[in-house]
Amino acid sequence: MALKVLRDRILKDGRCFEGGILKVDRFINHQMDPYLMKQIAVEFIKRFAHKPVNKIITIEASGIAPAIMLGYMMELPVVFVKKKKPSTMNDMYSTTVTSFTKQRDYTVVISKEYLGPEDHVLFIDDFLAYGNAGKGVIDLCRQAGATIEGMGFIIEKEFQHGRELLQKEGISQIESMAIIESLDNCEIRIKND
């Protein structure tokens, strides 16, 4: 179920590029619309209210804004998985994630201090494409013994089948605020509710 305000914004300000790329940097991942982020956070709260979440996790960088807004509203800590190991981090979990937009692999890390078996995690990100970031977070949570209660995405590109990959990995609740059915011929087609 797409948020109407998000749907309208994608159609108005989104840009399509060859290769299944949807650029939303006017309002999500470069210049941000805080009011839109708040509306998205409110919707995530409704959808995950029944889950015993005690921590929100995202991956840098574009997932940070919606995760922070959600963490603020739910009064929960937000931890972001880093794409580069800081020199001050020694005890950590790590895995490899492939970036769809950058077409490269990243070794991502999270401190063992901020993820453990007591954590019930909600993963939040800007896009669900092939599911690579989500799969990386699943691996990190498995290493830590943490439980993933669900995953939330602002925009899902349904035609890239990331949801199926995450479901095969055991994620039962995946919520997307807007689902893109197709970007064929650079025409943005959003799934109707």
Automatic annotation (TrEMBL):
<dbReference type="InterPro" id="IPR050118">
    <property type="entry name" value="Pur/Pyrimidine_PRTase"/>
</dbReference>
<feature type="binding site">
    <location>
        <position position="157"/>
    </location>
    <ligand>
        <name>xanthine</name>
    </ligand>
</feature>
<feature type="binding site">
    <location>
        <position position="22"/>
    </location>
    <ligand>
        <name>xanthine</name>
    </ligand>
</feature>
<protein>
    <recommendedName>
        <fullName>Xanthine phosphoribosyltransferase</fullName>
        <ecNumber>2.4.2.22</ecNumber>
    </recommendedName>
</protein>
<feature type="binding site">
    <location>
        <position position="29"/>
    </location>
    <ligand>
        <name>xanthine</name>
    </ligand>
</feature>
<comment type="similarity">
    <text>Belongs to the purine/pyrimidine phosphoribosyltransferase family. Xpt subfamily.</text>
</comment>
<comment type="subunit">
    <text>Homodimer.</text>
</comment>
<dbReference type="InterPro" id="IPR000836">
    <property type="entry name" value="PRTase_dom"/>
</dbReference>
<keyword id="KW-0328">Glycosyltransferase</keyword>
<keyword id="KW-0963">Cytoplasm</keyword>
<keyword id="KW-0808">Transferase</keyword>
<dbReference type="InterPro" id="IPR029057">
    <property type="entry name" value="PRTase-like"/>
</dbReference>
<dbReference type="InterPro" id="IPR010079">
    <property type="entry name" value="Xanthine_PRibTrfase"/>
</dbReference>
<feature type="binding site">
    <location>
        <begin position="129"/>
        <end position="133"/>
    </location>
    <ligand>
        <name>5-phospho-alpha-D-ribose 1-diphosphate</name>
    </ligand>
</feature>
<comment type="pathway">
    <text>Purine metabolism; XMP biosynthesis via salvage pathway; XMP from xanthine: step 1/1.</text>
</comment>
<keyword id="KW-0660">Purine salvage</keyword>
<dbReference type="GO" id="GO:0000310">
    <property type="term" value="F:xanthine phosphoribosyltransferase activity"/>
</dbReference>
<comment type="function">
    <text>Converts the preformed base xanthine, a product of nucleic acid breakdown, to xanthosine 5'-monophosphate (XMP), so it can be reused for RNA or DNA synthesis.</text>
</comment>
